[in-house]
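User: Please predict the structure of the protein below. I'd like the answer in structure-token form so I can feed it into my own downstream comparison script.

Assistant: Understood. Taking the following sequence of 269 residues as input:
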Amino acid sequence: MSTILLDYAQAALLWVFLPSLALFALTWVLARRLDNWSIVDVVWSFGFALLAGLLAYRSGGPNGWSAFALHATMLTLWSLRLGTHLGFRVLGHLGQEDGRYVKMRAAWGARTAYKMGVFYVQQAIALTILTLPLLASWTDPCGVRPVHLLGLALVALAMLGEGWADLQLARFKRDPAQRGQVCAQGLWAWSRHPNYFCEWLIWVGFALLSWSPLLLGIPGLLCAAGMYYLLNHVTGVPLTEAQLLASKGPAYAEYQAKVPAFWPRPPRG
């Protein structure tokens, strides 16, 4: 067990954190040159696929029908979907920085470049932490078991659910008759944030995919718990709700009274 933990810690440093740090250092240089700090979101999203590819390369390939190969494949698909989604939004409007980063500039003033450097290092740390479940599959390899197939099914279904929720919201926003209204249709009638709920389910699926004989999926379970906390209490629901209350006013307050924030519930007649 101690050997596995030592290998795990060494791999986390050498093959996850240091490559992540190098990636975000290059991103910082590029963002400063472009004068748009928003690109870090795109790089962070694609970072999972890059690290999965690096670990697969270090293992000499997929290593047959292994739990690591399954986990790496699903994490890569998730990463590419998220990165592409954000890429169209951010890279398509390079001259217009995301509002969060505009506020950071205003708050930090002349120290923006330095503060962004610290922020980018934090993103490297976050990427490292969230890649630890995959690293568990890589460090403590095993064949595919029922728990991994359950994780595969959960990730696949949750990705479909998240994509469906995004599609429903996009269609609603494109409808001129719905301008200024609150989307309360389809999955959005069951939860105010079905995309966040599905995102959390994806991480639960990754936790199941990360199960191994010695590490027992513990890194994955910790990441899933952390993701639940972040989505519900830090970056996800609170920020989105505040923005929507400011833009939609009483209509969104009425929606809040009828539809649960996170856990889905059948619509009330």
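That's the full token string. The mean pLDDT is 92.
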